[in-house]
Design goal:
By secondary structure, the protein is of the alpha/beta class. The chain is 33% helix and 18% strand. The chain is built from 11 helices and 14 strands. A 10-stranded mixed sheet has the order 6-5-4-3-2-1-10-11-12-13. A two-stranded antiparallel sheet has the order 7-8. Helix 1 packs parallel to helix 2 and helix 3 runs parallel beside helix 5. The two termini are 24 Å apart.
Length: 329
């Protein structure tokens, strides 16, 4: 992996609020949480700058665009750092973002389609329009389609439709508990749901695994044919969706291997607390307070499985790199 464009990547879970009500989402639709986030933007930006490092700041949520002054925050951070965004592309400020932010300062914009919510809210064309605007502005933008079990069979038709609009859908492996069918929205069915739930991606059938694998390969092939600049391809490879092809049969296990999580990658909460990764909640300080204590070298992974698999594949060292470290100890 090429780290030349940044020193440290932070996955910033900036809020919990989302305006969508997807059946597979863990975030609750609590409007109070849409205002959680940095209260003093200038202080936050200055604290990033004071580290003397170039950060790749990945915004996720919830829906990041509901954070007050989010575009302003991105604009100030982009003067010295790089951002990436995971968004459902529903907020009106997408237009202001496209006009304000320089595309070269954005690693990628991951647009989650959530097709059923788009159809329920009559916002399919809204997604297409905003996506195309970002494309025309020169942003490295891509769309994901969650491989929730009962959505797999409709992917083919949805893929062909969005491809006709110039949008390549990337299959995103579902990670979590799911039933094989839709349950009625009642207290009774919610109580019995755990008895019918299965853990994914492990619960994908062999046929589903093969389908998802072929879909990912097709998306990769179609995307490569549409990408004319090597820079855009490199930026796409820095995004989490690129690594989902390794997780079809289950989440990986990196236990005992050296990983750069804590030195080149960290996670941050909406309150500014910094931890090594999602599977290792070793506290590393608080950015809002200006206290950041990164590791000065890779350390061994202690997790039974990698809960942030895409970051694991990016930051776990190869065996030859591990050998170099062992020789230095």
């Amino acid at each position: 992996m090429n780290y030349d464009i940044y020193d440290v990547e932070v996955d910033w879970h900036i809020n919990d609020f989302c305006n969508f009500e997807c059946i597979y989402c863990l975030d609750k639709k609590d409007k109070k949480s849409c205002f959680i986030g940095p209260k003093d933007i200038d202080k936050v930006v200055n604290n990033f700058n004071k580290t003397g490092l170039t950060w790749l700041i990945g915004f996720t949520g919830g829906e990041p665009f509901f954070v007050p002054d989010f575009v302003k925050l991105c604009d100030k951070l982009c003067r010295q750092h790089i951002v990436s965004i995971n968004t459902n592309l529903s907020h009106k400020d997408i237009f202001r973002f496209a006009e304000t932010i320089k595309p070269e300062k954005v690693s990628s914009i991951h647009c989650s389609l959530h097709i059923e919510e788009r159809e329920r809210l009559n916002l399919v064309q809204d997604f297409i329009g905003k996506y195309q605007i970002l494309q025309k502005k020169g942003f490295c933008v891509f769309a994901s389609y969650l491989m929730y079990p009962y959505l797999i069979n409709r992917f083919e038709n949805d893929y062909n439709y969005f491809k006709s609009k110039g949008i390549i859908l990337w299959p995103k492996v579902f990670k979590g508990m799911c039933t094989r069918f839709k349950l009625m929205d009642s207290r009774f069915f919610k109580k019995i749901m755990p008895f019918f739930s299965h853990l994914y991606p492990n619960a994908y059938s062999k046929q589903e695994q093969e389908k998802i694998k072929s879909y990912i390969e097709r998306s990769q092939s179609d995307s490569n044919s549409n990408i004319t600049q090597d820079e855009n391809l490199q930026r796409l490879k820095l995004s989490d969706i690129w690594f989902d092809r390794f997780c079809i049969q289950g989440l990986p296990d990196f236990k005992g291997r050296y990983c750069n999580a804590g030195s080149k990658f960290v996670i941050m909460t909406s309150m500014g607390d910094i931890y090594r990764c999602y599977g290792d909640k070793q506290y590393l300080g608080n950015l809002y307070d200006g206290q950041i204590n990164l590791f000065d070298a890779p350390k061994k992974c202690s997790g039974e499985i990698c809960r942030c698999a895409s970051m694991g594949y990016k930051y776990v060292l190869e065996s030859n790199e591990e050998s170099k470290i062992l020789c230095q100890i």
